[in-house]
Amino acid sequence: MQRSNDERKGNQMGLAVRIKKKLGDFCLDVEFQSESSRIGILGASGCGKSMTLKSIAGIEMPDQGEITVNGQEFYHSDEKINVKPQKRKVGYLFQNYALFPTMTVAKNIEAGLKGPKQEKKKRVDEMIRTFQLEGLKDRLPGELSGGQQQRAALARIMAYEPDVILLDEPFSAMDMFLKDRLQQELIEMLSDYRGIVILVSHNRDEIYRFSEELIIMDRGAVVTSGKTKEIFANPGKREAARLTGCKNISRIQRLDAHRMKALDWGAKLTLQREIPEGTAYVGFRAHEFIPVWGERRENCIRVRLAGQAELPFEKNFYLFPEKEKADSCGEEEDGEERQDMQNLCWFLQKDKWRMLEDKGMPDYLQFREEQLLLLS
Amino acid sequence: MGTIWDILNNLDWSPLWISLKTGAVATFISFFLGIYAARKAVKMTPGKKAVIDGILTLPMVLPPTVAGFFLLLLFSRRRPLGILLYENFDIKVVQTWLGCVIAATVIAFPLMYRNARAAFEQIDVNLVYAGRTLGMSEMRIFWTVVIPSAGPGIASGTILTFARALGEYGATSMLAGNIPGKTGTISQKIAMVIQDGDYATAGIWVAAVILIALAVIILMNLILGKRMKTVKRW
Amino acid sequence: MFKRVVSSLLAVVMVGALLTGCGGNPSEEQKSESTSSESKEESEAEGDDEAAEETEIQVFIAASLNTVMTELAEKYNEEHPEVKITYNADSSGTLLTQIEEGYECDIFFSAAQKQMDQLEEDGLVEEGTRDNVVNNQVVVVTLKDSGTKVTGLENIEEAASFALAGGSVPVGKYTRQALVNLGKLEENEDVSTITTEQVSDALGGLEISEQDNVSKVLSAVAEASCEVGTTYYSDTYGYEDKLDILETVSYDLTGNVIYPIARVVNDEANDAQKAAADDFMKFILSDEAKAVFDSYYFDTDVE
Q1: Does residue C194 share a domain with residue C123?
Q2: What is the ipTM of this complex?
Q3: Residues A62/A77, Cβ–Cβ less than 8 Å
Q4: Is C237 an interface residue toward B (CB < 8 Å)?
Q5: B145 interfaces chain A, CB cutoff of 8 Å
Q6: Which CATH number fits the domain that encloses residue A35?
C-alpha cells in the first residue's frame, strides 16, 4: 500500500484518506490509500472506524487532514476545502438503516432523487423491482421486517447512483440467521455496482467474505492495510493478528536468525526461514496445531489439558504448556515461573475427534513452521 | 330557561370573534417562531443554550399581569419604541387588537418553543445524517424529516399554545385594554359580568370557551393523528 | 400533507379576519373621515339638534362602574346617536398606567381620588374639568343564612373568615381606614400600607383572605369561601337574593369614597371628539344621570 507522493496524486480512481481528530480519550489518526472497489475496515468497537466512515461521508468533520475520492478533494483542511455531504454523492448505510419513519418506502427511495416527477417515479419503480420490494411501496418502515428494511435502505441509496457506498456495521444488530442471509443478499445486490464500497465491521468473517482490501484499526490508528487474504495469512502486527482471530500470541526473545524463544509458552522454536530483527511476537492459529503422541519432534511443546469446551461442530481445548522433565533441546533452564505461561488454544474439527478417542490427548502439540506468524 | 334564551339573543358576540382571531393568529405566529427558536437552540453550546432558554421561557414563568406590564412599557406611546413605531410606520400597539395578538403570542410562545425543542432533541440524529448524504437540502430535511418525526411534540406544543392564547387575560388587559368590540376578549368579558353578579351570562361564555377549546383540540388531534401512524400505543 | 395543516390554520385566520375585519384603529379611520368632510360647528347646548357628525370618544371607567355606565351610554345615545362611546373598563390603577403610557383617552372616571391625583400630577388632566360624581358606601356583606355573628365592623373579629381587599385596592384601603377609626387598627399615615397580616393580628388572629380586587371579594362571599367581606354598596347590585348587608359603614369611619371624573388630555382628538367628550361629561354630571346612579346604589349626594 506504500506509494510515492507523485503516484498518489496521479491516481484518478480510488480513495486516499489522511485525517486526525480528537475523540474522547484518544486521537483518531488514520492514513490509507486504496484503488480497490471493495474495502473493509476491521476493528473493535470504539476504535474510530465509524468516525472515519462518517468523515468520508462528510457528516462529521475531522480536525485536520485530507480526503480524496476518485480524484476529487472532499476535504482539505489547509486549503479550507470541505465539500458538504449533500454534494459528495456518497451513500451511507446506517446500522439502524435510518429510514425516514414517517415516509412510505416509495417516498424514502425517492428522497435522494432530483428531476421531473415522472422520471423520479420511474426510477423508484425500477428500484422497487430490483430490490424485491413489490407490494411494500406504501408501507411505512415500522411495518417492515429487518431484511425488508435493509433492502429499502439500499434501494434508497442506489437510486441516485452514488460514487461511493459506505456500510456502517450493517449486520451488527442482527441474529445469526438473518445476518448470514442478508450478507449474501448484500453481496449479490452490490455485484453490479461499479463504485467503491467500504464495509466497516468488528466481525472478521464479514470482512473476509466481503472485502478485497482491508484496513485494520485499533484505538484510532491504522494497524495495517493491504489485500485481505494476505493480511489474514500474514498479519504482520500483533493487533492485526489478534483482530483477524489469532488466538495464540506470545512475546518472543530472538535468540539468533533462526531460533527464538516464545516467552509466554516456554517453548523454543526453530525456523528454516530467517527471523526478522524487529520481530517481537509470534502468533499461531488455533486450528493449525499438529497433535503428537509419543516422541518429541521439532517445535513441539508438551501440554496438559486445562480445560475444554464443546461446540456443535468443533471442540476447543485449552492446554497448559508444561516443562520438560529433561529438556531434550539441551538448553539451560531459565528458571522462569511457570505460572506466567498462557494457555494454548487448540480448536479441532469434529471429524478429527476420532483420533483423540483412540489415542487419548496428545503429549505434544507441534507448531508447523509455515503457519508461524512472525509479528512486530 | 327563558332568560337564557333572551340573553343569547341579545348577546354581543364580539368577544367570541376577538378571542378566536387572537388565538388563531397568536398560534400561527408562535408556531413558526417557536420552531425557529427551538431549531437554533438545539444547535447551541450548552452554556449559551441555558441562558437563551431562560430568557425565552420567562413569559411563562412571570405572572401574566407582570408580563403585560413590561409589554405596556415596551410599546408605550410615550416611550421610544412606541413613538418610533407610531411616527414612522403609523403602528399603534397599545389599545389595539394588535396588542391582543402580541400579548397572547408572547405569553403562549414559550409553550411552543419548549415542546418543539424537547421533540427535536429526541429524534434520531442518523435521520438527519441520512438526509444529508442523500443530497437533501437542510430546509428539506428539516420540514420533511425532522418535523414529522417530532410530530407528537410539535402537535402538543401547538395545541397548548392555542389553548393558552385563547384564555389569555392578564397581559392582554394591560397591553390592549378591555375595549368591547376591539380588544375585549372572552376572558375579560367573563371577569366583568361576574363582578356584576350576572352568572347566567358568565356561564354562557364559559360554555362557549369550553366548546371552542374542545373542538379545536379534538380537531387538531385528529388531523395530526392521521400522520402519526408510527407512534406506538404503550 | 404537512402543508395541509399549515393551510388550514391560515384559512381559519383569514376567515376570522374577514368576518370581523382586521382591527385597524376605528378612531383613526373616523379622524380621516371627519377631517376630509366639512367641519361643522358643534352647538354647545344639550339636547339641541347638533350636526350629525359621527365621532367616537374614549371613556376609561373603573370596573365597578361598568353596568351603570353602559346604561348611561345607551341613554345618551338616544339623544346623540352619532357619538360612539367606547369604554375601557378595568381597575383604576391599570387604567391610570395605561393613560400614562399613551393610551388614547378622553374621559377618566376613577374609583378613587388617588389615581386622579396622580393623573393631575402627570399633567394629563384638562384644567378645571375635574369633578366628583358619586360617593359609594362600604358595606359588610355575608351570604344569606350564613348564621354569622357579625353585625358590622364593630364585631368583625367574630367572623369565621373575612374577605378583605388588599391595601392598594380602594375598598381595601377604606376598610382599613374605618378599622383605624374604630380603634381596632393602629393609626398609620398611609393605611393602604397596612398588611393583611397586621389586620389579622389586630383582630385577634382572624382568618383573612386577601383579594386583589373588589369583585373577587364579592365572589368569595357569594361562594361561601369566606363568611363575611367588605365591598361597595353599588357592587351588591344584582346580588340581592344571594347576599345580606350586615352594615352600611358610615362615611365618618371610611372617609368619603368619592368617584371623580375628569377630561383627559388627548392630542389626537379632533374638535368634534373634544366637544362630544365635554358634552358626555356634562351628561354624567346631570340630574338625569344622577337618577340612574341612584338606582344602582351609588350615593349621588356629593359636591
Answers
A1: no
A2: 0.81
A3: yes
A4: yes
A5: yes
A6: 3.40.50.300
